[in-house]
Structure to design on (229 residues):
């Protein structure tokens, strides 16, 4: 499904999940794009805004985090083909040069101990303008590459990597801020912590006040040395 404009490709495919088949929805621009914690996500013309719905045959529920990791790695592999060196900010933001270039939203549907379907929403800033409110911590591929980036081949490369096999080590090897002091936010709480990595089940591993702790949810803000939120 391809649209010139749509409130949200994610909402569109979520409503069609009952049809039980893999689907792709792409929009030239979106007016209601959402990111982590239901925050709005700018989706102006010039970027790649898509959602992909995939039905699983025999994927265990314990692999839920791997679905998110798969998408983040697919984005990284795509950008690496353009000569860039992307990194993943746990859990699923992709950065280039320390700035966000892509957001990933992953929704799994479970039945018993199996994942029945995964709905990925992926937004890549390609050539789209960025508002002043996000330009300090976000970037675009055209800015990184100093030239226009054709969106159609970008889409094809992304889908190729998304549907091919990957390993969790590929995710871990691309993590940003390893060994650095970060701000970790969980609800109303905010901690100064050292980012140690990610466990095999996707939990973030932090050192807080000299003790190692793991968290299943929360958000890593940008490294404190960057003074960005």
């Amino acid at each position: 499904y391809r649209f010139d404009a749509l409130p949200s490709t994610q909402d569109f495919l979520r409503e069609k999940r009952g049809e039980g088949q893999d689907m792709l929805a792409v929009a030239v621009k979106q007016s209601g794009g959402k990111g982590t914690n239901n925050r709005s996500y700018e989706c102006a013309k010039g970027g790649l805004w898509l959602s992909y719905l995939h039905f699983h045959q025999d994927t265990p529920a314990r692999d839920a985090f791997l679905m998110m990791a798969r998408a983040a790695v697919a984005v990284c592999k795509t950008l690496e083909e353009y000569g860039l060196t992307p990194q993943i900010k746990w859990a699923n933001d992709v950065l280039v040069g320390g700035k966000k270039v892509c957001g990933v939203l992953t929704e799994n549907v479970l039945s018993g101990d199996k994942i029945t379907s995964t709905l990925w929403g992926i937004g890549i800033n390609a050539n789209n303008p960025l508002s002043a409110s996000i330009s300090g911590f976000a970037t675009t591929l055209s800015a990184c590459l100093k030239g226009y980036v054709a969106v159609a081949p970008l889409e094809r490369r992304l889908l190729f990597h998304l549907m091919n096999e990957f390993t969790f080590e590929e995710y871990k090897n691309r993590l940003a801020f390893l060994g650095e002091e970060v701000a970790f936010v969980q609800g109303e709480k905010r901690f100064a912590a050292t980012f140690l990595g990610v466990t095999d089940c996707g939990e973030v591993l932090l050192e807080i006040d000299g003790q190692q702790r793991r968290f299943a949810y929360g958000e890593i803000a940008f490294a404190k040395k960057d003074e960005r939120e």
Remarks:
- The chain has a mean pLDDT of 93.
- The CA atoms of residues 33 and 42 lie 7 Å apart.
